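Quick one, T. Sequence first:
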Amino acid sequence: MKDRFCVWALMLAAVCPASAQLASSHASTLPAKQTTAAQLPMDRPVARVNGAVLTDRDLLREEYTIFPYARQHGGVPSAMEADIRAGAMKMIIFEELVYQEAVHQKRIVPPASLQRAEAELHKQYGPAEYQQLLNAEFKGSLALLRAKLQRSLLIDDMLKAEVNDKSKVSLAEARAYYDKNPSKFHVPESFTFQSISFLPPANPAAAQLQEAHKRAQDAVAQAKATKSYDEFGLLAEKISEDDFRVMMGEHKAADRAKLPPAVVTALLAMQPGQVSDIIEFDSNDYTILRLKAHIPAGTQPFDEVKDSLRQQLQKQKSEDLRRSLDARLRKNAKVEEL
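Structure tokens:
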């Protein structure tokens, strides 16, 4: 469950970017290009839930929670924008329905919980930044801030009871699943790695090919100078031209049988943490790789997968419970997307 009580600090990040590092896992940040209050959303209605209005600010916060790389990339990539917006809309509507149900059930927030949440906000900022947050989001009103905290805590309380507590998976349940589904735990030989790629246009001229090769030559020197996953990943985000750049260049557990032979050859010659020379493909693409891990084929033992399996099963159970709760709350609700 993602914490909510300091989500709206996103708007302060637009005015004071240095304040964007929040303890809450739900906190998100605006892209670097949005740095002034004048560029923020204008609280335009985007949905109504049983008459309660949700605004473009609510929607933007959730979009940047779904895509936390937005700050580095100047916003949500256009190819992902529609899907992320749709997901964010569903989430803010769901949370409003949960809040309204918590109120209907007469759930309460203990004063001590509210005080702890407010104290946590104070810890995030210096006095001047805290006052800026208060002014920007709550018109200087502590009462409005506390109402938002109370709303967030009510949502958390409701979801804890209806989703989190009911989705726990025991070790025995995980073992039973493992024993009934042995094929799910067979893994092919695979590699996890990062990439930096340069992609010339279709039908490139000789000069364009030379330029791409020069960029690759410059990049391989920079890549070999990196000393960690993060350093290589940040370089990939900055200069790579493939779609993996938005994920620190990372390729998750790629099956050896599905990789190009040139990539397999390069990866087999490397130790984890090493960076390849330039790999040139017939399509005039140039790629540089950093090996993260070489995973042999085999069946994963239960002790090796038990923790991740429990998390996976709990996540699935939690998602099923959320969908069920959403369907139940929507059944008699009036929801309008504007």
